[in-house]
Amino acid sequence: MPGGDVSGDGAAGPVIAGAGPVGPAGERATVRLRDGGPEEPPRYAPEWLQLRESADAAARAQDLLDPLRIRLANLPGRAGGLVVHDLGCGTGSMGRWLAPRLDGAQHWVLHDRDPYLLHFAAVASPRSAADGSRVSVETRRGDVARLTPDALTGATLVTASALLDVLTREEIDALADACTGAGCPALLTLSVAGRVELGPADPLDAEIAEAFNAHQRRSGLLGPDAVTMACEAFAERGATVRVCPSPWRLGPDEAALTEQWLRGWVGAAVEQRPELRERAERYLRDRLAACAAGELRVVVHHSDLLALPRPAGNAS
To answer: pTM of the entire structure?
Structure first.
């Protein structure tokens, strides 16, 4: 049962892969970065990633950039340029946002499990840094759960967007091990925080949100607990960690994104709690109507995390 199909009338509609659950109930829809056979359906459609890109760009925490720039400027070997590993890169939106905000030559290593998304990301990657220096890219398929310090040899930065909340505790530990083992800073953005604000309010808002959060935690995934777990994992390994809010603020200008988000959000809640279906049908119809009329405002809370490990080889 596709997660977004919660109504028998006009509220029903396709959910773009990534906006909500589109596989069999219980199937893990993540950017595992694990090679799969050609029959395996994509977890994230480029249409969804493109639809959310401008909201992501507006939401990312600018306050984390200065401490990141300071660390990168002081890294040994910086004269050779930055080497940035982007995990679960999707269509490459993180690179398009970050590369033009950093000075110096950059080489981006784009990781994803989907070869089509990797191709899209490489073709659409930025070509120049903030100071006009050259930006180059390469693509790799791999498994984030198997990331090791050796895989990050030579890396000066690890980035990811909307990744932490679809990982398990073991995978976050592996990511923290790899980054701290390599002495490599990590900028991990747009992890769901488990809080949503909708205006005007509806009595069912809280129940849908609770069911959605439970869906996010299925099969051992961390969902809205991911940022807390990641902070602990990096701090336990000696890294300095900063967290900033990065909320989506959706109004009439983001109606297409809001519609898809609503379908996926309610669909996931119903997949988690099928007894919500009848009330959720009414709720979704009303919310979609308000969205179409330009009357709906939504704040979807996320968090951005910057982890600054001790440089590799520094025992202090």
So the answer is: 0.88
